[in-house]
Amino acid sequence: MTDSLTQNAWTLIDHGRAADALSLTEPAARNAGAPPNLLMAHAAALKALGRVDDAVAFNRRAVTRAPNDRFAWYNLAATLGDLKLDAEAEAAARRTLALGLDAPEVWLVLGKALQGLRRYDDAEKALLTALARRPNDAAAHLDLAQLRWMRSGRQDEALAVLEAALGKHPGDAGLWLIKSTVLTFAGDHAAADATLTEALRASPSDVLLRLAARARGWSHRRRRQDAGPRPGGPAPGARRAGGPCGALRSLAGERPGSGGRRDRRASGRGHA
Fold it and tell me: Which fold has domain 69-133?
């Protein structure tokens, strides 16, 4: 009965009906004897609804109920990372790896936690390991490029690994989208435009590329509006929260097969 309920909950989440999944799992999840698979599905529904603070309690209960379940530990690590509880996220990710879940999603969570702890060399190694597991993982490429840009301020350094991946996967629109995003936050807007133009020429019907191109147009309009400095205001061209860079990152993360919805990608539905 519980297995069927859990399966139905995941199906609802897959179809964008997280609220229905939450209603379905709520009574059983409140039971002290709830199985870990159901607790993980309930936590995933909460996260899909933006209730990450509530989700972590159910992820913690899952590892308590199944201390050797690698999927439960991964999901806990991911939620802790979302909450910026980096030391705990690192420990949970390492526990996941020790239990045998050597997946790129786990290394990505570990890399982000290490970056939050300012252990930048270790963070870079973790992100490179994620890419060794999945060379065209867009989310890992974006995090690595951002980390290298922050550390070096050099565009070539930030893009080196991504350029190599594009050489091997020239038809991967997600990687072109990440390159445009990296060029944008590096301030090279002309190159970002040229990258999107090249990508759209190869994949003219790609929805995310078209949305990114539209966001680029939004960015150009805002920069023209900001051409004259205002007393006490931000410098011309300063990035704003929620502007195109943030939007492009979100789009890249949601592309199927590029690293979006990491709880589902690494954990599956099974119990290990």
Answer: 1.25.40
Rg (CA), the chain: 20
Tens digit of each residue's pLDDT (9 = 90 or more) over 63-106? 999 999 999 999 999 999 999 999 999 999 999 999 999 999 99
Enumerate residues 6+ apart whose C-beta is below 8 A from 219: 184, 189, 243, 244
In the CATH scheme, what architecture does the domain 152-225+235-265 have?
Answer: Alpha Horseshoe (1.25)
Q: How many angstroms from the chain centroid is the CA of residue 140? A: 8
Task: Give tens-digit pLDDT for 164-222.
Answer: 999 999 889 999 999 999 999 899 999 999 999 888 888 888 888 888 888 776 555 45
Per-residue b or e along 114-144, where b marks 16 or more CB atoms closer than 10 Å to that residue's CB: bbbeebeebbbebbebbbebbbbbbbbbbbb
**Residue spans of alpha helices (H) in 136-230:** 138-152, 155-168, 173-185, 189-202, 207-225
Specify the pTM.
0.80
For 1-67, CATH number?
1.25.40
From the list 8, 37, 3, 33, the residue with the least C-alpha distance to 23 is: 8
Q: Are 1-67 and 69-133 in the same CATH fold?
A: yes
